[in-house]
Every structure is written in structure tokens, then in C-alpha cells.
Amino acid sequence: MDIEIPEPIRKQCECLGGVNGLKKLMLSKRDASKKGKVLEAVANPTRMTILCIIVKQPLCVCIIKELVGMPDSKLSYHLNILKETGLIQGKRQGSWIIYYPTKKGQAATELIKNL
Questions:
Q1: Any domain includes 6
Q2: With 90 as the cut, is the pLDDT of residue 104 above it?
Q3: 9 within domain boundaries
Q4: Tens-digit pLDDT profile for residues 2-51
Q5: Structural domains counted in the chain
Q6: H-helix or E-strand containing 87?
Q7: Closest by CA position to 85, among listed 68, 64, 58, 108
């Protein structure tokens, strides 16, 4: 199939190995799906808020609940999504679970900050 490509773009693509070279540079479907889930997680304003405050200060659920003003069940739902996508982790300290950002969570907040 011949398609008309503007000359500067054609030359640049050729330098990268043409269409086959570009395909090698693409994310795999698996990687794109994983990264998409992380972006979906932080696209939610509540989760974005929780992540951004946890990056500044690790917190227990009682303080997070006070800050975001939502019932335990909804907060648990949002925290689970952040944990499942690898953005935060909970560490038990006595009878408390303290939530900390992961390196991925810190990187996500840098992205948010720069938007």
C-alpha cells in the first residue's frame, strides 16, 4: 500500500528504519495497558488529591479521610486502586496502616505538578 508522506517526515522515518523501525519503538500492548491503568488511576480527582498529599506526608486512613471528606468504603475503594496500580503502599505500624508513595507514585506526582 502506497501512501503519500510529506518528504521531511518520510526522511525522518527512514532514519528510524521505516515503518518496521517505528513499530519496534512502540509500547507493547501489555505495557500500554499497564501504563494506561496508572494514568486512569491518577486521572480521578480524589485519587490525584490523595496521592499528592501522601507524597508530601505519609498518612493513616483517619487523616486521609478527614482531608478528602468521604466515607470509609469510598476511601478504601480509592486507596485500593492506588495500591493496585503500584502508586502507593501501606505499611503496618502497630494497629495503624500508614500509606506511603512508591517511586512510581512520586513520578506520577511530578507529572501532575508539571501539567
A1: no
A2: yes
A3: no
A4: 678 888 888 898 888 888 888 899 999 999 999 999 999 999 999 999 99
A5: 1
A6: none
A7: 108
Residue 102 cell numbers, joined: 512508591
Contact between residue 75 and residue 90 where contact means Cβ atoms under 8 Å apart = no
Amino acid 56 reads K
Report yes or no on 18 lying in a domain: no
In a domain, 53, yes or no: yes
Closest C-alpha to 75, from 108, 53, 94, 102? 53
CATH number at residue 64: 1.10.10.10
Long-range contacts, stretch 75-84, CB < 8 angstroms, 24+ apart: 78/44, 78/46, 78/47, 78/50, 79/50, 81/41, 81/44, 81/47, 82/41, 82/47, 82/50, 82/51
Predicted TM-score (pTM) of this structure = 0.82
Residue 59 to residue 62: CA distance in whole angstroms: 8
